[in-house]
UniProtKB/TrEMBL annotation, chain A:
The lineage of its organism: Bacteria, Bacillati, Cyanobacteriota, Cyanophyceae, Nodosilineales. GO terms for cellular component: phycobilisome; plasma membrane-derived thylakoid membrane. The modification N4-methylasparagine is found at residue 68. Gene3D superfamilies: Phycocyanins (1.10.490.20). The keyword tRNA processing does not apply. It is a peripheral membrane protein. SUPFAM superfamilies: Globin-like. Keywords: Antenna complex, Bile pigment, Chromophore, Electron transport, Membrane, Photosynthesis, Phycobilisome, Thylakoid, Transport. It comes from the Bacteria. This is Allophycocyanin alpha-B chain. Signal peptide: none annotated. Its main location: membrane. Belongs to the phycobiliprotein family. It is found in: Cellular thylakoid membrane; Membrane.
UniProtKB/TrEMBL annotation, chain B:
This is Phycobiliprotein ApcE. PANTHER family: PHYCOBILIPROTEIN APCE, PHYCOBILISOME 32.1 KDA LINKER POLYPEPTIDE, PHYCOCYANIN-ASSOCIATED, ROD 2-RELATED. It comes from the Bacteria. Residues 723-799 are annotated as: Disordered. Keywords: Antenna complex, Bile pigment, Chromophore, Lyase, Membrane, Photosynthesis, Phycobilisome, Repeat, Thylakoid. It comes from Halomicronema hongdechloris C2206. It is a peripheral membrane protein. GO terms for cellular component: phycobilisome; plasma membrane-derived thylakoid membrane. Residues 748-764, 772-799 have a biased composition (Polar residues).
Length: 176, 799
């Protein structure tokens, strides 16, 4: 689900042509297209670095955690998950909205961590470290684009959702 | 009772079309990598051409009417075809209309303002003439084939004209969407096969009109964009001319998995899924990618980097062609890592579900299939299961020797409706860590009798009056599978045993349950205050202590209708006076109370509609609603006639007249087992106990063992004192809920059909015996005003 798709879906729902306002949104999105691709590339180039340093930062705050227990597999798994998030964020940059993050990434993640017995606070802490690291690594303009997605990720995991089923448009309704 | 079993279907919105960014992202995501250079270049080209495409889209949108008119004028004669074009009539309130209902209600001024904001859509006739004149000399205007004849509007008919105009408009609109999306996918998905549903002669005309529109649309854009517009229209026409494609068939592997058709358009609209194969001629990187995909399918994640389990010799054998992909997948399934990850931590049922996903790319389909594999795994262990799956006919049909298994999701192939819920959630990322088997619980749920809950929803009856509540607290034991109630299935209701003086049926048998607290509670009846005349002598007033004073009746009516004693200010003095004066009957009095302002405020204004109906129903008719069907009737009534209509309908209903007549105060006749459990002193909802509301009352009742043996015959006093009848009713409930559905489906006797379908009274002789003596003694119980205080109103008091 990208921004363009959203616009088309909306106007199709109402049996009309895309309004000038919507076209303007898409135009802005297209104009910033090359910038977005560049940011995604930058993020991709720095991803391993961000994860590496973010993990070290996280261990300073939270030394007693399975990923720091010396088990190399656990460490690697944690790092893989985090770099997975960063990859999703790069998808979001390309799509122009947070739908890829939601559809691929956030569905069921909370349940996953709960089931695995990983405290959610640790995950939030970890993501915060990554976010801080990303701010350091990327320059200001890039970071401005990337940080909202980090924030959303953190909020989604940190905050309890409403205890009912939300129907937020196309896509499977997600119990949150 | 129709009983359709399924695993629940979360709303599945199939992909309608895809755009360039979504396609790129999906491709990258399925291969677990960042977008490649080539993909980024494609995306970049899409972005840079965005400006142009949006200009075209804006131009087309602006001149939409003219373009459609040109197409229509080409094929229709004898009138103005545009007069038949209907737009969405009233866009007010829709987002994007510039006017949102939520802000202020539709005042006349706001309405006219919004109407003004709409563009006038009539076409200037002079410009139309000019256009026509110009078009005579225009270049490149498409020629119609010689066998094309124009259609006369008057002969064609209004309805068909409207349809045709709508379709032409629709074609243009979708072309615009496709241009915005930068992908012709939306056209091919929606247009392909349309010709199959339109008669042949009209098809030719449509093509002519489309070509005319193509030509016309090109007039409004500059030279560079012309090619683009032309291309999209060509795709449109080509796709339109395609015969209706055959639906894609899902292979039927056995009689348990019948083949199923999937419409071609669903298949086209699905996101492109890479099918990776290993063939001898492939390059090294392609082979490597296929091997990674196999790891990802079998282990659900990228294990090579993390676990360092690259099985080098196996991999090299695959690359050399010594080992086929099928054998490689089999080896992965038999590996130590698979055993550790997907066998050891889980129960057998879950292992089977997961293996089915990993090796067949789908979830389990039916109980029989599960049983087959269960037998395999219990005899031969995990390797036998893996072999059985990989050697199956289905694996051969879908993946063969070379293809890497993939998830066969919605849109890729036809899915069985019965397993949608578990199927879709099995494809989620977090599936392996779910400890509860998804399919097996669904299959087991199909064998159980109907749960004791309202058909309205899953856990929507935490308090008995709260059913239809839309905020279930399902954090601890989430149940994704809804109960399969149909409109004809009814709730089980417990009888209060009071039947307006006629307890039980003619044989003296009462029903098997009793509402605690109502037992022995006398009926309040309005009886004449004076003895009837005997001859010429007027007898004095009744002095019989067994009768109720009119004041007691009035108070009792208030208690029943409002659920509690009312404050002085809330009493309806006028109605009371009329009742005392004999001007109105008690039924009329109840009606006036129900229509009074305090009642309306209490049970109507603050509640959402389901709950309001449910409350009023219980207050006035003395029972919960039976079924969804009944509730639907009330919804209809409320929508058409409102609150007063509902009250009238209830009080004028045959049921009310039969049960309460003109002179009896309504009383609580039936109760849901859940409410029953709540009122029981040992119930799960007693205030000092932790509230871990079980899903269904039957759960609790089945688990609950009575501490003392049930008294078969008990006197009235002991019943009132310690309520052993409540216990016996619990047992009756437990037996009733553990009945097989076959028995529940049997036609019950006429009494139980009316009261509690599904658990006929003949199934619990204990209770039938125990309540027989009560019925006899109940009638001759003297009145005791103290008993009035036992009205079971506290449990249902909303305040």
């Amino acid at each position: 689900m990208s921004l363009i798709k959203q616009v088309i879906d909306n106007s199709d729902e109402e049996l009309r042509y895309p309004t000038p306002g919507e076209l303007r949104v898409i135009r802005d999105f297209c104009k910033s297209g090359s910038d977005r691709i560049q940011i995604a590339r930058n993020l991709q180039a720095k991803a391993t670095d961000i994860v590496e340093r973010g993990t070290r930062q996280f261990w300073k705050i939270c030394p007693r955690t399975p990923s720091n227990s010396g088990d190399r597999r656990k460490t690697a798994t944690a790092k893989r998950d985090m770099s997975w998030y960063i990859r999703l964020i790069s998808y979001c940059l390309l799509a122009g909205n947070d739908q890829p993050l939601r559809e691929i990434g956030l569905t069921g993640m909370k349940e996953l961590y709960t089931n695995l017995g990983i405290p959610l606070t640790n995950i939030v802490q970890y993501l915060n470290c990554l976010k801080a690291e990303a701010m350091k690594q990327l320059d200001q303009a890039d970071a401005d684009e990337v940080i909202p997605y980090f924030d959303e990720l953190i909020q989604e995991i940190a905050l309890p959702g409403p205890p009912y089923f939300m129907n937020d448009g196309p896509g499977e309704s997600i119990p949150v | 009772m129709i009983d359709r079993t399924n695993g629940g279907s979360p709303p599945a919105h199939p992909q309608v079309f895809h755009t360039v960014p979504t396609a790129v992202i999906a491709e990258a995501e399925q291969r677990d990598r960042y977008p490649q250079q080539s993909e980024l270049r494609e995306l970049s080209a899409f972005f840079s051409s965005g400006q142009k495409r949006l200009e075209i889209a804006a131009a087309l949108a602006q001149n939409a009417d003219r373009i459609v008119a040109a197409g229509a004028n080409r094929i229709f004669t004898g009138g103005s075809p545009m007069a038949y074009l209907e737009r969405a009539t009233d866009p007010i309130g829709l987002p994007g209309s510039g006017y949102y209902i939520g802000e202020d209600f539709l005042s006349a001024k706001a309405r006219s303002k919004a109407n003004l904001a709409q563009e006038p859509r009539s076409i200037d006739p002079t410009s139309g003439l000019m256009d026509w004149f110009k078009s005579l000399f225009a270049q490149g205007r498409p020629n119609a084939p010689s066998r094309f004849r124009t259609i006369d509007i008057s002969k064609y008919g209004v309805v068909r004209m409207k349809r045709s105009m709508r379709d032409l408009d629709w074609f243009l609109r979708y072309t615009t969407y496709a241009i915005v999306a930068g992908d012709t996918n939306i056209l091919s998905v929606n247009v392909r096969g349309l010709r199959g549903v339109i008669p042949e002669d009209v098809t030719l005309a449509t093509v002519v009109a489309l070509q005319e529109m193509q030509w016309k649309a090109a007039q409004y854009v500059d030279a560079e964009a012309k090619a683009l517009v032309k291309r999209y229209f060509e795709v449109l026409i080509t796709e339109y001319l395609v015969e209706k494609p055959n639906p894609r068939l899902r292979f039927g592997a056995s009689k348990l998995h019948p083949g199923q058709p999937l419409p071609q358009s669903y298949y086209d609209s699905a996101l492109p899924t890479p099918r990776l194969v290993i063939k001898p001629g492939l390059s090294e990187t392609e082979k490597q990618e296929a091997i990674r995909a196999a790891y990802r399918q079998v282990f659900e994640r990228d294990v090579t980097q993390i676990y360092g389990v690259a099985l080098y010799d196996l991999e090299s054998q695959v690359k050399n062609g010594q080992l086929s992909m099928k054998e490689f997948v089999r080896q992965l399934g038999c590996s130590r890592l698979y055993r550790r990850e997907f066998y050891e931590p889980f129960t057998i049922s879950r292992v089977i579900e997961l293996a089915c996903r990993h090796f067949l790319g789908r979830g389990l389909s039916c109980l029989e299939e599960f049983q087959t594999y269960f037998e395999v795994i219990s005899e031969g262990g995990l390797p036998a299961l893996v072999n059985a799956l990989v050697d199956s006919q289905e694996y051969a049909d879908y993946f063969g020797e070379e293809t890497v298994p993939y998830l066969r999701k919605l849109g890729l192939e036809a899915q069985e409706c019965r397993n949608w819920g578990p199927q879709l959630s099995l494809f989620r990322y977090s599936t392996p860590v779910r400890k509860v088997p998804q399919f097996v619980t669904t299959f087991a749920g199909q064998q159980r009798p109907l749960p004791n809950q309202h058909p309205y929803g899953v856990g929507n009856d935490p308090l008995e009056i709260q059913f239809g509540a839309i905020f279930p607290q399902e954090t601890r034991h989430p149940k994704t599978q809804p109960a399969h109630f149909s409109t004809t299935s009814r709730r089980i209701l417990i009888d209060s045993g009071l039947h307006n003086g006629r307890n039980g049926d003619r044989n003296g048998n009462t029903h098997w349950g009793r509402v605690p607290g109502t037992f022995g509670h006398p009926l309040l009846k309005l009886e004449p205050t004076h003895q009837p005349r005997r001859g010429n002598n007027a007898q004095g007033p009744y002095l019989d202590v067994a009768r109720h004073s009119i004041e007691a009746v009035i108070l009792g009516t208030y208690r029943q209708v409002f659920g509690r004693d009312v404050f002085d200010g809330q009493r309806q003095m006028v109605a009371e006076t009329k009742l005392k004066g004999g001007e109105i009957t008690l039924r009329e009095f109840v009606r006036q109370l129900a229509k009074s302002r305090p009642f309306r405020r209490l049970y109507w204004e603050n509640l959402y509609i389901t709950k309001a109906i449910e409350y009023i129903h219980r207050r006035l008719l003395g029972r919960p609603t039976y079924s969804r069907e009944e509730l639907n009737r009330y919804y209809d009534l409320v929508a058409k006639q409102g609150f007063y209509g509902l009250v009238d309908a209830l009080i004028d209903s045959p049921e009310y007249i039969e049960e309460f007549g003109e002179d009896t105060v309504p009383y609580e006749r039936y109760l849901t087992p859940r409410g029953y459990a709540m009122r029981s002193p040992q119930g799960p909802l007693a205030w000092w106990k932790l509230r871990d509301n079980p899903d269904i009352a039957g759960d609790w009742m089945a688990a609950h063992t009575p501490r003392q043996p049930v008294k078969i015959r008990s006197t009235v006093d002991s019943v009132v004192a310690s309520a052993p009848s409540a216990r016996s009713a619990q047992i009756a409930m437990a037996t009733a809920t553990s009945q097989q559905p076959r028995e529940m489906a049997q036609p019950a006797s006429d009494q139980s059909t009316r009261t509690n379908q599904g658990a006929g009274s003949e199934q619990s002789p204990i209770v039938a015996g125990s309540s027989a003596p009560m019925s006899g003694s109940n009638a001759e119980r003297p009145s005791a005003s103290a008993n009035d205080q036992k009205l079971p109103s506290s449990g249902t008091n909303p305040s």
